[in-house]
Amino acid sequence: MSAENYSEKVSVNMNAAVLSEIDLLVDGGYYSNRSDFINQAVREALQRQQSTIERIVISKNVNFGVRMENNSKNWFLGISGLTKKELQQMDEEGQQIDMSGYGLLIIDEDCPEEQLFRVVKSISVRGKVRCAPAVREHYGL
């Protein structure tokens, strides 16, 4: 996977009074802009919820963004990918997997479609999947 920026734009509706307080902090030099404030607030909220996030992940018996050996389910959180080399190895081993998770899944464009369709039974991602148009169509993404 390349080192490109994996950020995504989201829209947030906010009460005018709350927004005015954010603007006051921005104008006071505490944050460079509204986005800076909102990103920091989200990071802090996620940090406070870290034990809950870990509990959910453990309940799914998964590793963050890492394919688990001898498991038909490939679950990830964050950014995960599938390379041609990984696909070939799974195919040689006769593996079939379901890919699911939260975040960004990147399937290399050079993965042979026939091989991919043989190995990956399904793809279910809450987020984005970057892949070839034929792959997107095959899995209904």
Distance between the termini: 20 Å
Summarize the main sheet. 3 strands, parallel
Rg over alpha carbons: 19 Å
The general outline is elongated
Q: Count of helical segments? A: 6
Percentage of residues in DSSP E strands: 15-25%
In short:
This protein has 141 residues and is of the alpha/beta class. The chain contains six helices and three strands. It has a three-stranded parallel beta sheet, covered by helices on one side.
Notes on the structure:
The chain has 141 residues and is α/β, with parallel strands linked by helices. 43% of the residues lie in helices and 23% in strands. The protein is built from 6 helices and 3 strands. It has helices at 16-27, 34-48, 50-59, 84-92, 113-119, 133-139, and strands at residues 73-82, 97-107, 120-130. It has a 3-stranded parallel sheet, with helices on one face. Strand 1, helix 4 and strand 2 form a beta-alpha-beta unit. The radius of gyration is 19 Å and the shape is elongated.
